[in-house]
Automatic annotation (TrEMBL):
Domain Carboxymuconolactone decarboxylase-like, residue spans: 20-96
Highest taxon, organism lineage: Bacteria
Family matches, as SUPFAM superfamilies: AhpD-like
Pfam families the record matches: CMD
Alphabetized GO MF terms: peroxiredoxin activity
Full protein name: Carboxymuconolactone decarboxylase-like domain-containing protein
């Protein structure tokens, strides 16, 4: 499968991409731990089958201090012992927020309550935006056949400037 288009080399694509990146910068500057942000984005990317985003967020999570064990187990977080209750709540929100078409209820009240137990209002806002933005990014990557394997941590630093 060959890439269809590089959105960042297209004038309009790059203009929109900078604005998209600015939202990501705001999220990254929140008090929601960066490693957790990366785990949430990795899980959504796995569900959506976006190779570029799986590559990106695996490498960024490693740069943020995540261990190989936790990265290997994020796809099976329910059946593993390496995630905290707070992380489990965030991963459940990521899955339910990603699988909207698969779950007629969307994000369940039980998942929402668990998230609210562990995170303050600003962190919840950041978490909701993380889930929404990564799902948008996954769709962009899948539509244009952006392939994983070439991402280098930090390669987009300063993009939103």
């Amino acid at each position: 499968m060959e890439p269809r288009m590089n959105l960042m080399t297209n004038e309009l694509g790059a203009k929109i991409g900078k604005r998209f990146a600015a939202v990501s910068v705001a999220i990254r500057q929140s008090t929601l731990p960066r490693a957790l942000q990366e785990l949430v984005m990795l899980r959504a990317s796995q569900i959506n089958g976006c190779g570029w985003c799986v590559d990106f967020h695996t490498k960024e999570a490693t740069a943020a201090g995540e261990t190989a064990l936790r990265l290997h187990l994020v796809a099976a977080w329910r059946e593993s012992t390496v995630f905290t209750d707070a992380e489990r709540a965030a991963l459940a929100l990521a899955e339910e927020g990603t699988r909207l078409a698969d779950a007629c209820q969307g994000v369940s009240d039980a998942t929402w309550a668990r998230v609210r137990e562990h995170y303050d209002d600003d962190q919840v806002a950041a978490l909701v935006y993380v889930v929404a933005m990564i799902n948008a990014a996954n769709r962009l990557g899948v539509i244009v056949h952006q392939r994983g394997g070439s991402y280098e941590p930090g390669m987009f630093a300063g993009l939103a400037d």
